Amino acid sequence: MKKFLLLLLVLSVGFQGALLAQTRTVTGKVTGGDDGQGIPRVNITVKGTTRGVPSGLDGTYTIEVSPSDVLVFSFVGYITKEVPVGNQTTINVTLDPDYAELEEVVVVGYGSQEKKEITSSVVALDAEDFNQGNVNDPTQLLQGKVPGLSIYNKGGNPNGGATIRLRGISTVGANVQPLVVIDGVIGASLDNVDPNDIATVNVLKDGSAAAIYGSRGSAGVILVTTKSGNRGGGLQASYNGYVAADEVFRFQPVMTPDEYVATGGNDLGSRTIWQEEITRTGISHVHNIAVSGGSENTTFRVSTNFRNIQGVLKKSGFDQINARANVNHYALNDRLNIQFNLSMTNRDQNFSFNEAFRYAALFNPTAPIRNPDGSYFQAILFDNFNPVAIIEQNVNLGKRNNLNFNTQMSYDILDNLTWSANYAQQFTTFTGGTFYPSNSLFRGFDRTGLASRRTDESKFTLFETYGTFVKDFDNANLTISAGYSFQEEVFTGFGMEAGNFPSNDLGYNIIGSSGNILGDGANVSLFSYESPENRIIAFFGRVNFSLDNGIFVNASVRREGSTKLGAENRWGTFPAFGVGADLLNYFDIAAFSQLKLRAGYGVTGSLPGPSGLAQDLFSYGFGGGGTVSFVRAGNPDLKWEEKAEINLGLDFGLLGGQLSGSLDVYSRDINDFILERTVDPAVYGTDRRYENAGKLNTKGLEFAINHAGIGSGDLNWSPGVVLSTYSTTLEEFVIPEQMIANLGSPGQNGTNMVRIAVGEKIGQIWGPVFSGNVDAEGRPVFVDLNNDGNLNTDQGNALDDDGDFQQLGNGIPTLEIGWTNQLSYGNWDLNVFFRAAFGHSLVNTFRAFYEPIDLGAINSYNRTKTDLQIPELQVAQFSSLYVEKADFFRLDNATLGYNFDMSNNSMFSKLRMYLSVQNAFVITNYQGIDPDPSLVDINDGNVLAPGIDRRNNYFTSRTFTFGLNVGF
């Protein structure tokens, strides 16, 4: 055995010596096929290993290899090349440019830039990056994909829009949603574009990028580009369709009927699971058919989208048809380009009644749905209604129509001078109606039936024109753009509510027969309105300058005027400046294949939502022969809200560009909120007036990192992570400290839960601290926080100096994460996307109202039952007991697809089938149904009151989808 081991050792040493004898030093230079210059930081590796070296600043390299090795030369923007070593000791390689990547452009305001020249914080996504599955709102494509962009549709109501925040709160008294630009049309409606028709989405996050849009860019900008035909691409057709099944992910945890009876509840003889009675498995169908084509001079694409969407709440959902067409024509040797886009959407909506969720959790679980005579069982109690009756008896319908079109033209006047123009109009009409029959205890019973109808219309007109001049120098490039923008919008509406009907058979169409109209007119509610022609006129300009393909400078300014502001302050100026440097152009940093430093500063404005705030407001009353009342004083000095933002960014690449990412830090100041204030009547003649006041500061950090692909052979895994964190401080305000966000009825109308204070962070949930003990009367015992021997815990005294209150949590997350995993193996692909948020809290209002077991009122309604319940507690009073940390980690989407090989098929060019599950699981300690942050109080839309999980929130669902993508 020893001789055998010795022989193996000798052979091993000899073999290794032979290998060492065969290794050699290879040197060479890597140059670019475009200019013949040496390329620095090329990743040179031995194929199948991790051994490798980068090229130097002049493109030269040295590496130890064996004759059997194959060298792989890769660099961002160039086509990868493989070279066998053999007997060579010098290997010079020329890499050909990958023009598709080198010339990758990103759409920005009024034009585009090469990605490498961008100095602001911009994220570009295409169809490969989008979320998949049952997506009915274009914003769902982006959820968790863009650092700093928060998108939450809490509960997932199919008729409810998502709450969108870009880098936190951008304003207090104006629009907080980012500006949407679709195919160059500012303010276009996302409701009028089907997710299947979107080609790319670019998000302008910081002020230096958004300032070119002036007053409408304060909350950030989302640029949407829809799909179009390809020049010379011939005729193509596609079908994309899927069927999806939604089921309730989690019900409110309440007592079972037997638990309710055992606790002392009144047993009415039935066993009804009310939450199951009002919900269903929602089956949705989506079908998209598109035809596109193109000759050398003309391209076109037309598509039609059908959506039949059912929510998990019975009678909730919509039927929608959307049609989109675009034509793109080139003439005069491509010097003239004319584009035309048209889109129409018709959506019939059934809103159902979210209140049913609330009453399904509290209605007596032993009550029957109907009485023996077929009528609905009703408990004659305050704030207690049969949830099935709410849905089945009443009607809540709407119909929305959107139409927009735009025509764009660009003409190359000279080889380096282009003139562009864009004209667009958008029309939106909404009609809605509700009806509550005379036997509806929920509403209508006291009015002998109740009906309402309303209609709202809006018209938006846009005209913009601008010129672009480009000049190339020996080692520099200059681009100058300048233009003019005109925007006008008008809103009109009419509505009526009346009761006292002779019949329930005609629904809200019987409103003309109302006894309130024909007799007692005091119970008729009427409204009508028409806004003035709100106009924005702007002049803008931008300069882009690059030097040595390594220094990039961008500057812009927009001078804008609005009719919504006071006569003395209608015009504002919004400047921006950015600079970037490709550090690898000047420094030899071996680890990086890309390293660009960016810095930007930009100012944007924000306009008030309503019109006429700068003018006096009067009202008219018929009493006493007719009277005119002075309601609100005008403010001729009313001006813009203004946001100024500084952004520092770093774009980097490692491993020859296989690993890439970005880091951004920012600070933004928001000044001069537009708010209605109480003023001195002796000075203004009334006690109300809109004024500018207040200041917010937000500081944040955003990080993104992506890998182009890990694996070998047919297996590849491309992971990516985005994360963001921010906090907002109220630095100035007209009221130093106040409590907002009322908990509500029954019994807690005076309970405000959120504190805002100058010098402190936004989002503070404020209240007494529960000690864990209960007194002899079943009341919670709170902590004496100031140790003065006296408990002052009534919520109305929350701001008292001797009050025993403290911050119980914050409604804004401190960290948000999105983790994408794209895997492929042969013809299979798997996309797994996780989403998480940490650091935020939620007020669980179901627990705050219905968890304490009041033995004297147990017959009134069911009780919430969670792991945090205190059995001895009988009195409901807001405290830390009902404020829960809502950290979560969620498998948001998993999609498995198979791509059939169509290379030998003459009929189909593509055939893909996929299965998807959304909201597969969530890891959280939150006892409510959905731990997603609540960034705005849904009761009144207050953005300063995050963190309230209200009782009327829609139930969260889990969705299973089977889909088919076919290309012809």
From TrEMBL:
* Main localization, broad class: membrane
Question: How does the entry describe its membrane topology?
Answer: Multi-pass membrane protein
Q: Where is the signal peptide?
A: 1-21
Q: Where is the TonB-dependent receptor plug domain?
A: 115-221
**Residue ranges constituting the TonB-dependent receptor-like beta-barrel domain according to the UniProt record:** 335-727
Give the Gene3D superfamilies listed for this entry.
Carboxypeptidase-like, regulatory domain, TonB-dependent receptor, beta-barrel domain, TonB-dependent receptor, plug domain
Q: Which residues form a coiled coil?
A: none
Query: Keywords on this record?
Result: Cell outer membrane, Membrane, Receptor, Signal, TonB box, Transmembrane, Transmembrane beta strand, Transport
Q: Transcription as a keyword? A: no
Record InterPro entries: Beta-barrel_TonB (IPR000531), Beta-barrel_TonB_sf (IPR036942), CarboxyPept-like_regulatory (IPR008969), Plug_dom (IPR012910), Plug_dom_sf (IPR037066), TonB-dep_OMP_SusC/RagA (IPR023996), TonB-dep_OMP_SusC/RagA_CS (IPR023997), TonB-dep_rcpt-like (IPR039426)
Cell location: Cell outer membrane
Q: Please give the family membership noted in the entry.
A: Belongs to the TonB-dependent receptor family.
Q: What is this protein called?
A: SusC/RagA family TonB-linked outer membrane protein
Q: Which organism is it from?
A: Roseivirga thermotolerans
